[in-house]
């Protein structure tokens, strides 16, 4: 792992990573740098960083593994579970799985739901336990992640024999298949069909290229182009 560039090479700024995953920049920065809140009349509340960052290079400080970890956190956030309540469970998850970067590991997908359920059972009827249980359902006699979390986790691909995330299909787009692959386009989003970088295609559209021209030039299905353009227009 020490020589794996997925862990070492900064690819994204906090703003880029947040945008790719469809979460607020302030939320992503809290995940990446932790937080300290000082409620009046009470002790400070401190939350440690959860997402991996490395030394900044030209403003980028998030490696691919950090994006993969944040993708899993985005799934938890989407399910409506408050992160401050699930943080202890995430710590337990990493301890039980016995690995660093558990949120970017295949073990999260195979064993994570069972670990969280067992943690909740040991904790009893507490807000943290109830939040952990909300992430887990019983299916075919096994504890698995709920539908929202599972739909996110299925967007991550692993290679045979490799325990760490290899590729992510971004959740931002309803139908278009846009991926991030640390081996292609410096890890920035590309269309799965045609391999064109989304930012390049969007820039060409802004310069006046038509959907037909873009589809022909970059080999991207028109439906995917329209979906991405719609998402970026709504976010503007």
Multimerization status: single chain
Q: In this structure, how is the largest beta sheet organized?
A: 4 strands, antiparallel
Helix content: 40-55%
In DSSP terms (H or I, runs of 4 or more residues), the helix count works out at: 11
**Radius of gyration over C-alpha positions, nearest whole angstrom:** 19 Å
Task: Give a brief rundown of this model.
The protein has about 240 residues and is of the alpha+beta class.
Structural summary, described in words:
The protein has 236 residues and is α+β, with helices and mostly antiparallel strands. The chain is 49% helix and 10% strand. The protein has helices at 5-8, 14-21, 25-33, 64-78, 83-97, 106-123, 127-134, 147-153, 198-206, 211-218, 222-235, and strands spanning 35-37, 45-47, 136-139, 142-145, 156-157, 167-169, 178-180, 190-191. The chain has a four-stranded antiparallel sheet, with no helix packed on it. It has a two-stranded antiparallel sheet with strand order 1-2. The chain starts with a helix and ends with a helix. The model has no long low-confidence stretch (mean pLDDT 92).
Describe the secondary-structure layout.
Elements: H1 5-8, H2 14-21, H3 25-33, E1 35-37, E2 45-47, H4 64-78, H5 83-97, H6 106-123, H7 127-134, E3 136-139, E4 142-145, H8 147-153, E5 156-157, E6 167-169, E7 178-180, E8 190-191, H9 198-206, H10 211-218, H11 222-235
Antiparallel strand pairs: 1-2, 3-4, 5-6, 6-7, 7-8
Helix pairs in contact: 2-3, 4-8, 5-6, 5-7, 6-7
């Amino acid at each position: 792992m020490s020589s794996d560039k997925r862990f070492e090479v900064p690819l994204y700024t906090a703003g880029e990573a947040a945008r790719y995953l469809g979460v607020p920049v302030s939320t992503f920065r809290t995940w990446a740098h932790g937080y300290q809140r000082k409620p009046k009349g009470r002790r400070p509340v401190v939350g440690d960083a959860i997402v991996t960052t490395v030394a900044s290079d030209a403003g980028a400080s998030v490696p691919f593994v950090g994006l993969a970890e944040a993708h899993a956190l985005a799934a938890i956030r989407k399910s409506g579970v408050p992160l401050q309540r699930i943080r202890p469970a995430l710590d337990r998850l990493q301890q039980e799985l016995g690995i660093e970067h558990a949120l970017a590991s295949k073990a999260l997908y195979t064993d994570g739901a069972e670990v969280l359920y067992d943690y909740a059972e040991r904790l009893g009827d507490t807000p943290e336990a109830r939040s952990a249980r909300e992430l887990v359902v019983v299916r075919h006699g096994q504890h698995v992640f709920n539908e929202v979390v599972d739909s996110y986790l299925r967007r991550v691909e692993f290679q045979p024999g490799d325990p760490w995330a290899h590729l992510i299909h971004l959740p931002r787009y309803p139908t278009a298949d846009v991926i991030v692959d640390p081996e292609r386009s410096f890890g920035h989003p590309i269309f799965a069909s045609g391999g064109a970088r989304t930012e390049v295609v969007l820039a060409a559209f802004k310069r006046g290229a038509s959907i037909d021209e873009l589809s022909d030039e970059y080999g991207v299905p028109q439906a995917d182009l329209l979906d991405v353009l719609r998402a970026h227009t709504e976010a503007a």
